Amino acid sequence: MLKREEAHVVILGGGFAGLTAARALNVPGVRVTLVDRSNHHLFQPLLYQVATAALAAPDVSAPIRKLLWRQDNCTVLMAGVQRIEVEKRRVLLDGRHLDYDYLILATGMRSAYFGHDRWASHAPGLKTIGDALDVRRRILRAFEAAELEIGPEARRAWTTFVVIGGGPTGVELAGALAEIAGRTLARDFRHFDPRTTRVILIEAGPRVLSAFPEDLSAKAHRELVSLGIEVRTGAAVTDVGPDFVELGDETIVTRTVLWAAGVHASPLTTHLGVPMDRAGRIWVEEDLSVPDRPEVFVVGDLIAKTQNGRPLPGVAQLAVQSGRHAARNVMLSVLGQTREPFRYVDKGSMATIGRHKAVAQLGRFHFSGVFAWWLWLTVHLLSLVSFRSRLAVLIEWAFAYFTWQRRSRVILEVPREPEAQARPSVIGAAVRIEEEVPHANGSSAPGARSPPALHV
Ligand SMILES: Cc1cc2nc3c(=O)[nH]c(=O)nc-3n(C[C@H](O)[C@H](O)[C@H](O)COP(=O)(O)OP(=O)(O)OC[C@H]3O[C@@H](n4cnc5c(N)ncnc54)[C@H](O)[C@@H]3O)c2cc1C
Whole-prediction pTM value? Predict the structure, then answer.
């Protein structure tokens, strides 16, 4: 009897969506290649804790290769994806090409500055470990610089922190900054009192946590104010520089600005040639495939889709559920069965502001204060993907709870965006390179050779 060819599923991105899809495809009849430019899966919901010195980078990340090592049908490649060629059913990575039968695009979002890319160097966003270490360095350096300053105005600029964006990340960052200044560093300096630090949270919309019900966002606002944070709603940032933030006619002098305001889809979505929303997300079909490309699926943050008249949120739950669903539809197709439409199940949302301060919505139940905070801690701890991370985070949190200290206070000089440097020749024995090419741009111009295929 002839053995049926295995379908090759290429997954781009090892975040919540890509990783879940890969795990769900641990079945006969398919072989999987997961490509990510980082070597690690990142638990983004706790990234702000790395940025504010509460956790170390390995606590919120785990090697993708390790997470999938038991899955024999899955190969992990660390490589940056440059292009998707849907006509040829292949992707270009670091100058090689990888053919697919099915493609699952899960490369997520990146920070975006509403057309003001210049702001990026003054106001780092928070998407990668590199970003978090950069933010942590800026925060800790600001306090060190304040200790060195003689002039009160210059010192004031170092001890004024501006967070732009009043969503969960902005609220969490502002709350953590207030705790660092008011507790963690309170006695560490001799020439100024860290408790005089100003933390300003700026939100262009009428309220913080706008995705939450109004009562919870009002509660969060009050909690932020109780921590000494200046909350500025309805305030649109018009310019950002190395030592200022401008809000129309008003200028705030500050040396530390953090960006939690906007995101845009990974540029790979533009290669699919299908309709996108303003943030570059793909309007997917009911089964999560791309219009007229049934072999291409889009999952996680990259999905543009409405359900019951409301857009689906860019949250970890959507990434997990859509990754699992796309994998299931791939399997159904391989078996020649009808695909199923995707329905998102909202399991609730929560955000923390500081110790004993959080808000949570579970269906029609709204919680705030101590109970919501413990709920937030428990859910986030249990959601970490590896046992090692759960244990490490539990120990760090217990230590911080009793001492108010943050242990990860090393100031590191780090590159903003660590790019993968892996070449296929070092990827491992499972990869065979057919030929060498001089250029990595995958050009198909006359005379140019096609990029070599990776056989995985
Ligand atoms: C700071 C922060 C806090 C958050 N807090 C919460 C929260 O509390 N609760 C919640 O539900 N959600 C939260 N989210 C949102 C949640 O993390 C995302 O919805 C989720 O991570 C999306 O998963 P994803 O797999 O679609 O994308 P991602 O997790 O972003 O993964 C994308 C992957 O693709 C890889 N990649 C990107 N481009 C390329 C390329 N060209 N080549 C190769 N690889 C590439 C990246 O390295 C990454 O590993 C938060 C997000 C952030 C940034």
Answer: 0.90
